Amino acid sequence: MADQSPDEGSKQKTDAEATSAETEKAVGSVGSVGPVGSGSTPDPAGTPDTADAADALPESDSEPDSESDSERTSEFVALKPVDVPALKPPRPVTAGPAPGARAAVEAAAPTSPAPDTEEPAPAAAPLPPLDLLAELTNTPRPPETPARTLTRRFKIWVPIVLLLALVFVVVQAARPLPTPSLKLGADTSSYSFDGRFGLPWPAKGQGAVRVQGAGSLGTFGEQKPVPTASVAKVMTAYVVLKEHPLKKDEAGPTIEVDEKAVREGEAKDESRIEGLTAGAKFSQQDMLKMLMIPSGNNIARLLARWSTGSGDETAFVAKMNEAAKALGMNDTTYTDPSGLDSKTVSTAVDQLKLAEAVMRFDAFRPIVALPNATIKGLPQPINNNNDNLLLAGLSIKGIKTGSNTAAGGALMWAAYKTVGDRTPLILGTMLDQRVDGPDPNGGNSLTLVKENSKKVIAAVRDALTSAVVVRKGQVAGYVDDGLGGRTPLIATRDLKAIGVPGQRLPLRLTDSGKPVPHAAGAGAVVGTLTVGSGADAPAVPVALQKDLREPSFGAKVTRLG
Questions:
Q1: What spatial distance separates the first Cα and last Cα of the chain, rounded to whole Å?
Q2: SS3 letters for 258-310?
Q3: Torsion angle, CA of 147/149/150/152, rounded to 10 degrees?
Q4: Interatomic CA distance for residues 67 and 449, integer angstroms
Q5: What is the spatial distance between Cα 467 and Cα 494, in angstroms, rounded to a whole number?
Q6: Residue 87 DSSP label
Q7: What's the CA gap between 354 and 431, in Å, rounded?
Q8: DSSP code of 232?
Q9: What pTM value is reported for the model?
Q10: What is the residue-averaged pLDDT of the chain?
Q11: β-strand 475-480 against 486-491: which pairing, if any?
Q12: Which range, of 52-56, 177-181, 300-304, 392-396, averages the lowest pLDDT?
């Protein structure tokens, strides 16, 4: 309890005495009561109030200790009703004015109506970290300055930036490495032969020439679809061999001659095989000879029916067109297997694609190189329409002539020329050759196309030459690891190209049939260097000049993309 001054204690005592006097005065106002048993009758209506008054008296914790106490108690048995002011609970320990004095003070003081509800105090806003720290430590917040602001931001952002940098480094280092690739050097992207060369093309028609492995030597004329005549039989042979392949010098299955082939053998004004009898059987190889050497139209149709097992040639012609599309012969349309129909058309460039494809069959090349042949079951030998070319001393080995009024003269040819240690195949086509004047069934135009083709063949053979494009040990390119690293590649032997003067040949680097490694030792073969175009282009292996290593940690981390 707090210490009180003498004045405060005296004031409290005076207030207590005043309160006691007020209480005695209120009790004294109650009517007098006679002694118990004196014969006085109490007011019945006052009994409950008496009881209430008795209940209001404080209970004694103990029995009366003297007779005087008992007598004093009996004097208050019957009481008249009286309004007794309710006693207020005792005030807190802190002394204050007596109830009467307090009432006087409250009566003198101006009153104001109490609010209906008590509004809550607004919540205090949270303090900034530095203010909170200052309040907890009883240290005033330091004044804000640019230096302190910069320092605070530095302490907040530097750890975040460092964490992000660490995550970035880990992710970059764990990413898969790019696939290494082979790249040509700047000075080995192509090779050009010295000098100039021009082909002796005719003034009319169209033609194309290429050397296997060296690529195209050029074309002439407008490459528009024109009738091919019997050159169409090359596609017939190609489809038959695709459907029924033969090995070199293999006879193959037997094919029976039907009545239709016999009747067609008696037709006029078209090439055919005469003297056939129904039911006669010939091997597939002999049938191909009768197709390609004397150009039998009836044999072309018979092979078409036999190949598809049908009664006509419709299904086979569909296969011919499918094969043309597969070879990229986009300007070619076949309507019959013999070429007699003038609606069977193509271009010199398209027919050159077919020539390159068909000459890959081992069973086909020996047949078209024959000037003539004797076949058991035929009444006489068969002769080749281009026998004068085959015997011209130019190593011409086929392929097929064609002539009629609609087509004029047409020729697909193949020749060879040995250059150094290679003997490339020279292929050419010439279409729409026509003579001025009479030309029954295109016979004179056939002679013209053979003469014009012979000039071109001779010129190409004379011009073909060989040159070393890349020498052994020369850097031809490099392995690019995809992150800026380059490892040189060298040729393992001399790379020689064949071509004609002025011809430009492309070079290319390819893998060796398996992915380029990320790491390998010096001398490991990782690719192939090729010059020219086509499957027969000259090529040599290339090897690593030094060890191939994976990209460094720095290259992995700093890579983009």
A1: 81
A2: CHHHHHHCCCCCCCCCCCCCCCCEEEHHHHHHHHHCCCCHHHHHHHHHHHHCC
A3: 120
A4: 169
A5: 10
A6: P
A7: 14
A8: G
A9: 0.69
A10: 83
A11: antiparallel
A12: 52-56
